[in-house]
Design goal:
The chain is α/β, with parallel strands linked by helices. It contains 15 helices and 13 strands. Helix 1 runs parallel beside helix 5 and helix 14 runs parallel beside helix 15. The protein is globular, with a radius of gyration of 22 Å.
Length: 411
Amino acid sequence: MLIKYIKGRICFLLLFFVYGTALGVTKVLQRKKQTPWEKKNTVLIITTFHNVNWFVSHVLPFSRSNVEKIFLVCDQEIFSMNKVHYVCPSPLVRKYIPRPISKFVLAFRVALLERPDVIIGYHMFPNAMIAQVVGAVIGRPSCFQLTSGALQLVGGGWQSENPIAAGMQRPSRIVERIVYALVRCFDLVVVRGTKAKKFIRSIGYTGELAIVTGSIGEITPQKEKEHRAIDIIFVGRLAEVKRPEMIVEIISIVKKQHPEIQGVFLGDGPLREKLQTMVRDKGLVENVLLPGAVNDVASYLRRAKVFVLTSEDEGMSIAMLEAMASGVVPVVSDVGDLGDIVRNGETGYLVTNDRVDDFVHHISRLLEDRVLHEKLSENTMQASLAKSSVQAVSRAWNRYFAVICKNHGCV
């Protein structure tokens, strides 16, 4: 207990100092009058990629937009993409220098040399915070990408997946106030849906606020429909916030009516071992597959019927949008901004009270009623492509780049 308490206090002090310093520097520098600059059609993005699909979802639309150069500060190169210039720490630096420090140094160096029009950070700590400070120093607008829900900020982010913020182990009103103040200093905040937009306004942000999802990549039309042998599919990190154990419980109940039910969990994470044990204990070894992280998610989605997500918090799930684009009908928790696209009986089902029985009811109905499934499957494809195709997301970025540059003296 004492060790946990000490760890929590250290994380609190670290965030208090780092966030407080960033806020102070930003406040001082933003008082200076910005000097107009000639538009170069370049952006600097500071981020962390958890998997290849996340990279494609967020970077591909930039490469298809009017932006001519994308400088990408991240841990390591993923793969070559048009217009993308990687800025990554060397293996030696990664081994001995903390990631936030190395990212700040690299981002600051690129910003000084290239003078990008906009600096974008994904997730508050450390990426968006770095984007804000670097932008203030060189006199360029900064953008905060809130890719997940409000938990990333509420209480200082103690319920998020960030190890430092989560390390506080309890909410901190002090850190929360500083984080909210940092958000209010950004020139553009990008969220995934209407609930997140409402939340950002509720904390006093009055600047430019946009709803832009990640993209679902390039969808290749199917020449003929594949047999959907996978009844239930989950795609994502096997982490507590996703509550994948609930899905195992759901499958075990549905199995009573559908003994041959097949479920697949695509992804890896800290709960994978626990899930494997649950699958064995519940006698689901023949019914559930846990292949871990796979490269060809699309091949699984084309063969799946129902996408299940039981998260306690989400932004706009890219995994869900990709599943919908492949005709997989979502049955998901009514959290975050999922309700912006999932409409009951039209494009899937929202479960508002986290009751396992409600998930079971909707899933069973979709598995039993082929006509209903085919109708919703067609609706989900159309809705997902209209909202999150690469072309749609690229057009959105073009629009907001033009606005933010015009608002800040770019000519």
